[in-house]
Design brief:
Two copies of one chain form a homodimer.
Chain A (H helix, E strand, L loop, with lengths): L4 E6 L3 H11 L4 E8 L15 E3 L12 E4 L7 H9 L3 E3 L8 H14 L3 E3 L8 H12 L3 E7 L2 E2 L1 H8 L4 E10 L1 H8 L8 H4 E9 L5 H9 L9 E6 L2 H7 L5 E12 L2 E11 L2 H21 L4 E3 L14 H7 L2
Parallel strand pairs in A: 1-2, 1-4, 2-3, 4-5, 5-6, 6-14, 10-11
Antiparallel strand pairs in A: 7-12, 8-9, 9-10, 12-13
Helix pairs in contact in A: 1-10, 2-3
GO molecular function, one term (chains A, B): diaminopimelate dehydrogenase activity
Pathway (chains A, B): Amino-acid biosynthesis; L-lysine biosynthesis via DAP pathway; DL-2,6-diaminopimelate from (S)-tetrahydrodipicolinate: step 1/1
EC number (chains A, B): 1.4.1.16
Amino acid sequence: MTDPIRVAIAGHGNLGRGVEAAILHNPDMRLVGIYTRRPAEQISPRRPDTPVFAIAELAGHADRIDVLILCGGSKEDLPQQGPEYAALFNTVDSFDTHARIPDYFAAVDAPARANRKTALISAGWDPGMFSINRALGEALLPDGETHTFWGDGLSQGHSDAVRRIPGVAGAVQYTRPVPAAMEQARSGSRRMLTTREKHQRECFVVLQEGADAEQVRDTIVRMPHYFADYDTTVNFISAEELARDHAAMVHGGFVIRSGNTTAGTAQTIEYSLKLESNPEFTASVLVAYARAAYRLHCMGQYGAKTVFDVPPGLLSPKSAEQLRAEQL
Amino acid sequence: MTDPIRVAIAGHGNLGRGVEAAILHNPDMRLVGIYTRRPAEQISPRRPDTPVFAIAELAGHADRIDVLILCGGSKEDLPQQGPEYAALFNTVDSFDTHARIPDYFAAVDAPARANRKTALISAGWDPGMFSINRALGEALLPDGETHTFWGDGLSQGHSDAVRRIPGVAGAVQYTRPVPAAMEQARSGSRRMLTTREKHQRECFVVLQEGADAEQVRDTIVRMPHYFADYDTTVNFISAEELARDHAAMVHGGFVIRSGNTTAGTAQTIEYSLKLESNPEFTASVLVAYARAAYRLHCMGQYGAKTVFDVPPGLLSPKSAEQLRAEQL
């Protein structure tokens, strides 16, 4: 029995709390600290014996931590924390601004290499599991098309946009795949579908007293970029219903690759996720990749890495022999 | 532009013909030879300029071939060919006798290591893509259950068993997942399902003249091991219908992992394949892994490998930079 992998968490929002929960399911890991910007006394760890530190203490704790899981956001936190901590720790993060991944990779790669650390970036489900399925789908069926669908899922950005409308007291917005578009993707039809053709939007809105429902509905469905080009449904509900039925951060989606191996012979690969908690699932992916990042580091593979660089077996607590015997 | 990877095929049955087709979709590869036990003049390559050799010539062609794809069967061919050719070539195969994989791995590993070759065994979809999804599902959701379903698929072994019954002139058998069992797996119910609860069997039978349909049906549905414990349907059709509607080697299946990240929070991962040609899809997987095996060899990673050892990015013809920019 080898020593458990010593894992620490930087940031204790929804994602950090999910990582805490995920580590409890992985007996080969030990949570050695939660590092936070908030006053330590405001943090209630899931296990009361988990130490809580100010994030400023991290730099002094390099010898206590095998892998640091960065649980901050992609907009404000990771562009600064990623490169900074990759110089000191093996790290894992869920950087998810797709267009900026090449720059972020380069910014993390240099300090990690210089300090012989392994930094696994952009793990989660998209980017992450969906990326693997997009790359594998294309590699296995080069003559084909890939369709990614998101949902049914709560979209934070669209929910916020609705909440800012005058007369709205509360709201959530769900993105849902259009069933007919999914059937088309599965059928092997090679027509490309736009994001707008593939998704519809459904809002659940609590009105302020005296607000005009039809005016609110109209403002939503005509909102440019967010709703105007989509098939959008608006439902009005009570504050009690909003709290009771729409608090969970559900999400998920589909990656469908359909292609031909010979003329007239269609093959379809489909990967899908149905998540009752988006942050808890992302956290579970981060924890499995923390194991892999630590193993890559032990093998001398330094620098920034992505899910494309990680052999699947390294994510499992099982040995290669065990995996071959039990799961191949 | 680097030189194309020089790929050769050992064995020219359904799988070997599928590999031929798959290589045509991969411009970074070149098919340098088909090696067969049959007289060369009986082979019609898809491209007339593809050289055909007697399999006995393989040993003398080691310097012409970067990767040899073994397209023989797991019962008779691979136990002998796998170790023999792994001493001379980088190899890829689809060895699929699950219970014997550890022994086969050891038998291939020793000669490959001794001769600094890379031998990727048991690639395909099960073992192969399904194995990856079983291992990842368990790693991402340790508190959960995995269910593998096969079908709708033509089963060669069960079709043969029906064909041996007196009075049967021709037959095919399809294995199909039981819809209610699939819904249960997706629902996150943690009850284990047996293979028998998960699958039903459907036979399409052509009777010999004068055969007693009810007696044939009875013999099928009571056949021990093959049918007796399953919900089995028998349909009688004409020889013309058999030839017209049941010639395709369709197959596929599902790997469903459902688990909890915290109490009461269910997460479901589902991977599925719908294949109009089982051998052509398996061949496509072999060809993508041929690329990966060659790259592993170039990186100095010798010995037997499985899909668990291969970073997903190595399967793609795209560079790591390109994958990060386009598919992450």
